[in-house]
Structure formats: structure tokens, C-alpha cells
Amino acid sequence: MGKSTPTTKKAGSPDTDVKMKCLEHHPQYYLVGGDLFLLIGTTIFRIHSYFFKREAKNFYTKLIDPAFIGDEKRGTTEDTAIIIETATVEEFEHFLWVFYNPRYDVYEADIRVWFTILRLAHEWDFPEVTRFALREVKRRENEIGLVERIVLYQTYHAPAEFLVPLFAELCARPTSPTDEETHLLGFEQTVKIYRARERLRSSGGVSPLPPGTSEADTYPTISTILGLPQYTGRNVLDQDGDANTMNGAPIVRAPVKKNNNGRTSGKT
User: Fold this and answer.
1) CB 159 within 8 A of CB 130
2) What separation in angstroms does the CA of 266 have from each of 244, 255, 263?
3) Where is this region: Disordered (predicted)?
């Protein structure tokens, strides 16, 4: 996933002026002494730029550099606040909690909170926070099932490379995805997983039936998995009353042509 940058709008534009009239200071993160102003919706944050400079210096420099020569640096006042469009107020609160947690040795939060922090840290190029959030996610992996973890990684747009070991675990385990897991994964993704599982267990992408197993032997399994009635072939008859099967497998015959007096013609 590529990095995304919070957007800014020049003070004085009509849409910005309307927003500035109805701004509200965040009750927790509008800090005295803060030198970086950020805006989400109508909520303005005033925080310390130190954390951005320390953790993501290159990102921070691009963030505050003026769009035009002679313009004021962005994010230094409420009028030039940097508008964040890739996070909600609640999500940004979770992100800031990493820096402003009053209990330095306790970082207890729901795994979904850590997924939010992981996504924003990755998008905004905070490598240390990314590693920290990933460790916390992995520490809580036993709280949820494997497939739910995969879905959460995708829902919260976590770095895609972190999905590789999760999908590997799913494809390597002895059992295939359950009906519930298939529903969570979706049709297209489930098909790819089954394809990967078969390729991993076969030679050159070819997976023949076990020795001594005929196609007819697969009928009961096919009927069970696909929810079809059991098929024996005993009730399938051709026009002359002969069973249209051989060793339990259907026989495909050429169509029989009849002449005008109703008799068959041609070779049989």
C-alpha cells in the first residue's frame, strides 16, 4: 500500500472559511504549547510536532512545507491547519494515544484499535509506531480466529505484506476453510485459497485421484459437498432399455437417427 498524505486547503477559500466558523477544539488533544494544528471534520487538534519530527521527519517536512513560495507554513495556526481526510476523529485519538498515554508501561486496547494504529502509522510513514502496533496485534492474535484476523487486516488496510504468513497458515493447515470462513473471505478469495492449497499439495499443479479411485467413486463426495441427490446410474436407460452406464459411469452415445418409417438408419 502506498503512503497517503493529509491534505491541506488554503485559508481564505469559501469552503475553508465556512469550516473555520464552526470549529471545535478537541477536549483532550488541544494542548497548551502545541505547535501543530490538525483538522478532522470540524474538530481541531493542537499537538506537539516533536513526535512527527522525531518519528517521521521526511513525512513531516513535506506536510508543513508551504504549497506556494511566500505562504505561511502549514499547520502552524488554526487558519492553516492541516486537514486530515484518511482518519476519523476517533481513529486519530487512538493514534495520538500512543504518544500521550499517561501510563507509559500499559498499552491495553482492543485488537481493532491496534489495527487502526497500524494502518495510520503505515500510511503516514511512522516506522517505529508501525512495528509497535504490529507487535501488539500479534500479541493478541489468540483473541480472534485466523480468518477473522485476515479480514481485519484487509478491513483496516494494514500493510498487505503482513497478510502473507496468515494466508500461508490457512493454506498449510490440514483442514480447508469452513462455511463460515468462506462467507467471511468471500467467493473470489476462497477460490484462490483452494487453488493455492491444491498447488501446494500436488506436483506441477496436477493432483490426480488416489490410486484405485475411479471417477464414479467420487460421486458420493460430490453429492454431499454440493448438496445433490445420490447418483447410482441405475435409473438412466437408453431408448432400447439398456442401462446407459458402464461400471457406474455414464456412457455418452451418438444420437440415433430415424428415417420416415420410424426405423433407425446408419450404423449403431
Assistant:
1) yes
2) 20, 11, 10
3) 236-268
In this predicted model, what pLDDT tens digit does every residue of 48-64 receive, in sequence order?
A: 999 888 888 767 777 77
Q: Where do we find the cell 505484506?
A: 161
Per-residue CA distances from 42 to 4, 7, 10, 49 (Å)? 21, 15, 16, 20
d(CA 45, CA 26) in angstroms, rounded, equals 6
**Cα-Cα-Cα-Cα dihedral sign, residues 103, 106, 110, 116:** positive
Please state, in angstroms and as integers, the Cα–Cα distance from residue 25 to each residue in 20, 51, 158, 178, 197, following that order. Answer: 11, 20, 29, 48, 53
Q: What span, in angstroms and rounded, lies between the C-alpha atoms of 191 and 197? A: 10
CB neighbours of 40 closer than 8 A, spacing ≥ 6?
Answer: 83, 84, 87, 88, 89, 92
- Cα gap 42→39, rounded to integer Å: 7
